[in-house]
Amino acid sequence: MTHGDNPFINRDWGTPHGTIPFDKIRYEHYEEAIEAGMQEELAEIARITSNADAPTFDNTILALERAGETLDVATTVLGNYLSALATDELHAIAERVMPRLMEHSNKITLDKTLFERIKQVWEGMAAAGLDDEQRMVTEKWYKNFTRNGALLDEGRKEEYNAITQELSLLELSFEQNNLKDKNRFSMHITSPDDLAGIPDSIRALAADKARDKGVDGWLFTLDGPMYVPFMRYAANRELRRRMYLAYNTISAKGDELDNKETVRRIANLRRKVAGMLGYGTFADYVLANRMAECSANVYSMLGQLTDNYMPLAQDEHGRVKALARETDGLDDVMPWDWSYYSEKLRKREYDLDEEEVKEYFELGSVIRGVFGLATRLYGLTFKENAAIPVYAPDVRAFEVFDGDGRFMAVLYTDFHPRATKQSGAWMTEYRSQWRDAAGDHRPHVSLVMNFNPPTDGKPSLLTHDEVNTFLHEFGHALHGMLSDVTYRSISGTSVYRDFVELPSQFMENYGTESGFLDTFARHYRTGEPMPGALVAKIKKAENFNAGYACTRQVSFAALDMAWHDRLEDFTGDVEQYEKQVFARYAVLPQVEGTMMSTQFGHIFSGGYAAGYYGYKWAEILDADAFSKFKENGIFDQPTAQSFRDNILSRGGAEHPMTLYVRFRGRKPTIDALLKRNGIK
């Protein structure tokens, strides 16, 4: 089969480490490759099902594991671009191919003959003497089929196919509406008086935005690097209110980009699919394949956190409210006031100025610091290679090597906002790790973030929160880069969703450790190291508003469960339903017209449905894990090696609790988290 210059099909790329030739990809390549890839994979499946030999791990599970390479490459790039480089042309392509892709996937998972072969291997695992990895891979494929309709009768399979196709389009529409609605807002300021309190660096960024649009003054958008500091520093309360309302009504304005009906439809279709597969709720369906196991365990954890943190959150609210009354005579602190007065309180209580802190976190220095931490813990080194193609001009590519010089991975970094990029930060892969007769195929990992770009002669300077974001996503990257398994389906971050956040949140623990900060935090102009007194302030302030932060995350997890732990269809008002859920956890007044659900991409388009609790679940794990480092030394080599060997390199090769206990010597407890946050 020849398809001219289509790089998805003709994969003799000649690039370093077989990296994707982004510079050669054109829009017309996607659909051609996806159609060809689907036919290729169906032919490979046909060879499996027509095999006259008895089903074995090699001729069935491994053959399935290796099928569909062309399709995998094309859809991986398409999926990643839809988050990081989502043009209108790409959205149109996605809308055309998503139903076909879902139909194709269903054709495979609903193939009766194929499933029977998988089932026979699964039932005969013990007798066949499969090793740990082979058993996990077989179990994963068996569950993948049973959890995607393989046990349905023929009539129900057709209905399942139609529902899942509709869901794929709804989730895509949800994501597109969020991006479009966020991008169409900007607040144009022409009076310098309205900039009171806003740092010079953010003013410069806003001035650049205005110049780019051909207008005078300053232009503020809802991108994180502008929105967060605006809410934190802008003295003009009315402008803070406008920004807050713009951000918190994304896809909730009742127009063509509104997601309320999409939220209802997604939640109801997911509930219907779960019922078809024999589960009471969609949460039951999801949690059957998670560490938490069931809704009761999730609610128990959320209740435990609420009981421990809500009193602290209420105390924090009282102190912020008192400051607002004292300084500006405000009786009610509204959501658009919280960041502003919290920052004032933090500065008063800890003498900590975020703008001063930023001057020691120039992006280049932070990169060296974070990479250096991986060197110190795991012996990794990073070398930029300009010969590796990248998908945008400001993306960089690094080769990663182990302590013995062995090549480990390619790491792409994509740090700054663009109009075609979703908000937030994430790690993804263009290729995972696996081994076969040809050798060890190393992963190609990407870090995508939204840090402020250099502006007005200043380099990109990060807040301490952004440094923690970098550490978080880099922890995911380490999980991918250090993978050392045989099979793709259990490689790197291919683990239970409530376990995948352990490596990422674990890395955040270093963000307030002087032993780490001292290695890279230098003033961007003078090169002077961050003063010890400032490091001490950062450490002292690490639990500032910890109660509020925890209850906020718990409220999001509760909202997720409310949407997905339903026994009946939802026909009510999205906003009122959400506000009823939030009422138990709300510290601040709820504002009419604002909604989280309509922009909650994690659960409605990002794979965390009935799983957002996993951030807090994994936080218990990460605090408990880091407590071992605190006991032995935060750079202790035997402890780091154990974490690498038992957590980072093993992917999904064994049950996550087995891996965790092997590292920690026992099951986790909440004690370390409560101690870290000063609760206990």
Detailed description of the structure:
The chain has 680 residues and is α+β, with helices and mostly antiparallel strands. It has four domains: 16-151, Glutathione S-transferase Yfyf (Class Pi), Chain A, domain 2; 185-247, no CATH class; 260-347 and 546-612, Neurolysin, domain 3 (Orthogonal Bundle); 363-540 and 644-676, Neurolysin, domain 3. Helix content is 55%, strand content 6%. The chain has 28 helices and nine strands. The strands form three sheets. Strands 3-4-5-9-6 form a five-stranded mixed beta sheet, sandwiched between helices. Strand 7 (434-436) and strand 8 (439-441) form a beta hairpin. Helix 1 (27-49) runs antiparallel to helix 2 and helix 18 (464-481) crosses helix 19. The longest helix has 34 residues, at 295-328. The chain is globular, with a radius of gyration of 25 Å. The mean pLDDT is 97.
Helices and strands, with pairings:
Blueprint: H1 27-49, H2 57-65, H3 69-84, H4 88-109, H5 112-123, H6 125-128, H7 132-146, H8 154-183, E1 187-189, H9 200-213, E2 218-220, H10 224-233, H11 237-247, H12 260-276, H13 282-287, H14 295-328, H15 335-350, H16 354-358, H17 363-378, E3 381-384, E4 396-401, E5 407-414, E6 426-431, E7 434-436, E8 439-441, E9 444-448, H18 464-481, H19 501-508, H20 514-517, H21 532-540, H22 546-564, H23 574-582, H24 601-604, H25 614-632, H26 637-648, H27 656-664, H28 671-676
Parallel strand pairs: 5-9
Antiparallel strand pairs: 1-2, 3-4, 4-5, 6-9, 7-8
Helix pairs in contact: 1-2, 1-3, 1-4, 4-8, 5-7, 8-12, 10-15, 14-15, 14-22, 18-19, 19-25, 26-27
